[in-house]
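Dear support,

We are seeing what looks like truncated structure output for some complexes. This example has two components. We would appreciate it if you could run it in full and send us the complete token output so we can diff it against ours.
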Amino acid sequence: MQVQLIRRKKNLIARFRGELDHHTSEIFRKTVDKELAKNDQVQNLILNMANLTFMDSSGIGAILGRYKQVKARGGRVIICGLKTHNKKILEIGGLLKIIPVCSDESKAIASLD
Amino acid sequence: MNYMMLEVPARSENESFVRVVIAAFAARLDPTLEELNEVKTAVSEAVTNSILHAYEDDRGVIKINAFLNDRQLTIEIYDTGKGIEDIAKAREPLFTSKPELERSGMGFTIMENFMDEVKIESIPGKGTAIKMSKSFGRAVKNNH
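Here is the complete output from our reference environment:
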């Protein structure tokens, strides 16, 4: 799995490509945490899952961990490009009750303005 | 009945390998993409449990057997790790013995959600066996 990070002012966008499981969740965790530690200006996190082809419960834990960090610095997390299967996993994990979902990245950015 | 057996070292990079093998084996029952994703996820949860909890990232072997019978897929996942002390507790949603590793505690809940039946047999100090099955909506395309 790859996680591409794009910073747009106070928004950090993480674009996933591949499969998010126990093995690869470490990549997501380290990549995002490094950027959050480095940039105090980053407030919000957008998770673009349009190219995420698989997710299991390791994804729930990893997303929740980043959510807590972003919330602690007063920011918001938004998920976009959610496929049916990934949505089901996040729903079971209760994440859709706390994290809003947008259809695509531009809508996610707009909703944060 | 058709069957397959697989044995892999308990290493996290094998999680995706086992998922793909089981998905390829189940493909002859002509499952929908959604059904296939559900099976892959259930397998992923069980294999991750063995790696992370049974062997605690130490060396070990995971054995996976799968059977196709009519429209039903049965998967058995065995480890010889530390076992589960309290199975009822382990099955509870959100229960995790490793919150420090950001584990969600949803592994068994997901297995139960995505498979028709999930059986857990475990002996502390000896190991764990997960047996789960799922029937697919459509008839078998090819019996050969």
